[in-house]
Q: What sequence folds into this?
């Protein structure tokens, strides 16, 4: 697989919801979900970033739709991923922080892994004839001292290659009991290339059926470990920022390889590529990585949950469009992908999202929606971030209004996102009735979430 690191190979093919539902017998689209790790809203050029050139991601945006109001399900990795895979609030499955050792999970009042009985995009989309692959970070169970997590195939994936934080780590990238090691066969700076290779190889071997792929690299998460060649291209500035710039540069290069690979495989116009991040950045370089929005990873302010989001599908999605109107959630991906694939939504689950395939295809939506977030069930295990980026532990957005509050009723903050996206002016005193209404809804939602079974504590 490493011999592909210097070559371009092709990715996926896709149709749209409209195409799939309207014309029976049409070839179904491939779907690739690229989930970047800890990428800030403005890391890349087309979102205002200037850390390193990102010509390939900028081109992806020019060839598709760039959204400015897409939200992750959580401001931290494990629950944000659970929100995508299940289409439900992560707390529905008792996951509210990053999954750790068993003792730390108990302190966080959460489960050790996502139940294999949970709803799963992969399992559902297979019913429509798709073959499924997961290449990259998992972090929904397994690793550290959690040795009883279900395998990745239990969630409906036919093939996988994953990192140390999973039940099935790939030995080529997990030679030691840690996130990365100097003795890994695939070096840290080649990991994204390795997962791109896996993705293209999977597509090559399954050209006779539609593919659904999670391409979830662990870049641009710390530790930033660039190659010496790439690092040398950034000689100025603090060392950590130079490392970040070099890693981002390489990450963009690999996204270019992915898109070129799709063309070489001749499936470019039958593949829908979705690009986003799991949560906000850390460090944020004084807000520079989050577009000036308040907050970072582990914060319910905009900088922790509002993510870059690009949808590309040549010939089906309008190119060069910037959608600043539609408000989307990670929970929408499950029903939207089902619609695009022609798969039936499973019953018996309390899904939080909606089918937004018309929005993905270019039809902006003015719909006023309600979203809920939680991060932090106690002060002991949820002590970060500090200062102005530290938010209350619950949030609701309804229309353009956003309210934050602690579960005990303290710390109420109300913002009008239409006029104050940076959340600088608390309007609770000006709009007390609205604040009370949103507070009541938010606390009712939080109280509806299941508690960790007593035998798990």
A:
């Amino acid at each position: 697989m490493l011999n592909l690191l210097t070559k371009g190979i092709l990715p996926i093919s896709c149709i749209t919801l409209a195409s799939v539902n309207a014309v029976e017998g049409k070839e179904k689209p491939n779907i690739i979900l690229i989930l970047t790790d800890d990428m800030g809203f403005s890391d890349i050029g087309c979102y205002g970033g200037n850390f390193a050139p990102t010509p390939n991601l900028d081109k992806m945006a020019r060839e598709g739709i760039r959204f400015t109001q897409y939200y992750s399900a959580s401001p931290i990795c494990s629950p944000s991923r659970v929100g995508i895979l299940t289409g439900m609030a992560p707390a529905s499955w008792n996951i509210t922080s990053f999954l750790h050792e068993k003792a730390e999970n108990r302190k966080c009042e959460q489960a050790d892994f996502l139940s294999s009985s949970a709803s799963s995009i992969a399992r559902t989309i297979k019913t429509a004839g798709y073959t499924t692959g997961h290449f990259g970070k998992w972090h929904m169970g397994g690793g550290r001292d959690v040795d009883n997590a279900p395998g990745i195939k239990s969630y409906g994936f036919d093939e996988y290659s994953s990192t140390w934080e999973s039940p099935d780590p790939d030995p080529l990238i997990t030679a030691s009991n840690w996130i990365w090691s100097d003795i890994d066969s695939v070096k840290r700076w080649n990991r994204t290339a390795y997962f791109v290779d896996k993705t293209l190889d999977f597509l090559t071997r399954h050209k006779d059926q539609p593919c659904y792929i999670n391409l979830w690299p662990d870049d641009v998460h710390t530790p930033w470990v660039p190659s010496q060649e790439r690092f040398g291209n950034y000689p100025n500035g603090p060392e950590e920022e130079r490392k970040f710039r070099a890693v981002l540069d390489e990450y963009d290069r690999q996204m270019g390889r992915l898109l070129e690979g799709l063309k070489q495989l001749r499936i470019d116009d039958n593949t829908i590529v979705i690009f986003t991040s799991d949560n906000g950045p850390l460090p944020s370089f004084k807000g520079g990585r989050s577009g000036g929005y308040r907050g970072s990873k582990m914060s319910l302010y905009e900088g922790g949950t509002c993510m870059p989001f690009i949808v590309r599908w040549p010939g089906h999605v309008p190119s060069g469009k910037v959608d600043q109107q539609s408000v989307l959630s990670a929970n929408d991906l499950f029903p939207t992908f089902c619609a695009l694939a022609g798969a039936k939504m499973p019953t018996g689950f309390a899904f939080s999202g909606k089918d937004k395939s018309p929005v993905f295809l270019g039809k902006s939506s003015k719909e006023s929606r309600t979203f809920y977030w939680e991060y932090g069930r106690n002060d002991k295990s949820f002590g970060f971030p500090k200062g102005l980026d530290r938010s209350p532990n619950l949030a609701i957005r309804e229309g353009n209004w956003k309210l934050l509050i602690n579960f005990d009723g303290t710390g109420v903050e109300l913002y009008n996102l239409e006029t104050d996206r940076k959340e600088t002016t608390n309007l609770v005193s000006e709009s007390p009735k609205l604040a009370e209404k949103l507070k009541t809804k938010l606390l009712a939602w939080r109280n509806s979430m299941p508690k960790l079974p007593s035998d798990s504590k």
